[in-house]
Design brief:
about 260 residues; seven-stranded parallel β-sheet; alpha/beta
């Protein structure tokens, strides 16, 4: 059975588009000609980004989103589709970072990370997948983390949540086999975003020292959010009939200068 090619118009819905990887993805997809729906809690930041995209000749709409609230997720998706038409691509990347030693972290802090990263990803998935199955096509990309492959001290809640996302994506990719809908995960390594910039400096120093102790901080180079956006775009622009299910992107270590290079 032949696979029908992607439609010419492929609206993109980005959960967590107000900064970092989400914002970079919005700019990348808009530059590639995709209409984009920008979703997050910080609507003012979304509007600034949408204005920039429109000024550059793109198409963008803004919708408020709280991934911890079922009604908010459903309303956000509905608003995006009312403005742009059926969503063909979803990037699920909303999240924040709480650090702490697991034996000192409160249950509420731990649960919050699970609700945002894992339950939030499921809520977004559940709100869009039905229509995609009905149409027989669609791409859903979840932003994971390389911490699921290399867990780090001081990050137990984040590691647990992202490990849950790994399991979710592996399961739903099998469940969606034969529907025409593709689900994949992108696992970034250390990326320079706003996430974690509000952490306590002393706690951050202690955390990094523990990472070094276990060999988890090999170098000081960071990825840019645009690197992750490029990987996401590569995943969803694979032709129909092919499925890039997972992608890990790591920062390259510094290259030693040789001669006059």
């Amino acid at each position: 059975m032949a696979f029908v090619a992607h439609p010419e118009r492929r609206p993109v819905y980005i959960a967590g588009a107000s900064s970092g990887i989400g914002a970079a993805s919005a700019l990348w997809f808009a530059a590639a000609g995709h209409p984009v729906a920008l979703a997050a809690r910080r609507v003012d930041k979304l509007q600034e980004l949408a204005d920039r995209i429109v000024a550059d000749g793109g198409e963008a709409v803004v919708t408020a989103l709280d991934v911890t609230d079922d009604d908010s997720v459903r309303a956000s998706i509905a608003a995006a589709q009312a403005a742009l038409g059926p969503v063909e691509i979803v990037v699920s990347g909303a999240g924040d970072l709480a650090i702490g030693l697991s034996h000192e972290m409160s249950a509420a802090e731990f649960t919050s990370q699970i609700d945002i990263h894992l339950n939030g990803a499921f809520r977004v998935y559940r709100a869009v997948v039905g229509d995609m199955i009905e149409r027989g096509r669609g791409d859903i990309v979840f932003i994971g983390s390389d911490v699921t492959q290399r867990p780090r001290p001081w990050s137990s809640a984040y590691v647990a949540a992202k490990s849950g996302v790994d399991g979710l994506v592996t399961t739903i990719a099998m469940e969606l086999e034969g529907t025409g809908v593709r689900a994949g995960i992108v696992r970034p390594g250390q990326t320079l975003t706003g996430m974690g910039m509000n952490l306590d400096p002393d706690a951050t120093t202690a955390m990094l020292n523990d990472w070094i102790k276990f060999g988890l901080a090999r170098h000081g180079n960071f990825l840019a959010p645009e690197h992750i956006a490029q990987g996401i775009h590569a995943m969803v622009t694979m032709p129909r009939g092919a499925h890039m299910r997972e992608l890990e992107i790591e920062a390259e270590g510094a290259i030693e200068r040789k001669g006059n290079d």
